[in-house]
Amino acid sequence: AEGFGLSLAEAMAAELPVVATGYSGNLDFMPTGSAELIPYKLTKISKTEGDYRAGELWAEPDLDAAAKAIRNLAENADYRKQLAKSGRKAVESNLNITKISNIVRERLGCLIAKPGRAELVRQLPSTHPWRTLDELA
């Protein structure tokens, strides 16, 4: 899991129904009704593997609930289509260029506001949608 859920967002944008754990970064663009959100139980990771460290928390999905959700989508074409359309609308609403650029502006503005950070941020290349980062100050 990469935290954001890029493959989930791409599937939703392609108007495909999505089944996902109801936890983590995907909830930023996946409101209830836009995907099948699977219940989970937070468990401690017992052994360090890759980026996942022992003692950190992991959202362990309810596999029975996931299987039930997948079965429901497979058996109910109308629901599958409705969920896919809702998913696409959610991505269009939550991950559009205007919304994302406003989030980036806000975050960069917070960095600029911190002592000693303004110069670091001003060294970043100026890219769309800003002419210069000075406009953030």
UniProtKB/TrEMBL annotation:
It comes from the Bacteria. InterPro entries: Glyco_trans_1. It holds the Pfam family Glycos_transf_1. Residues 2-89 form the Glycosyl transferase family domain. GO terms for molecular function: glycosyltransferase activity. This is Glycosyl transferase family 1 domain-containing protein. It comes from Synechococcus lacustris str. Tous.
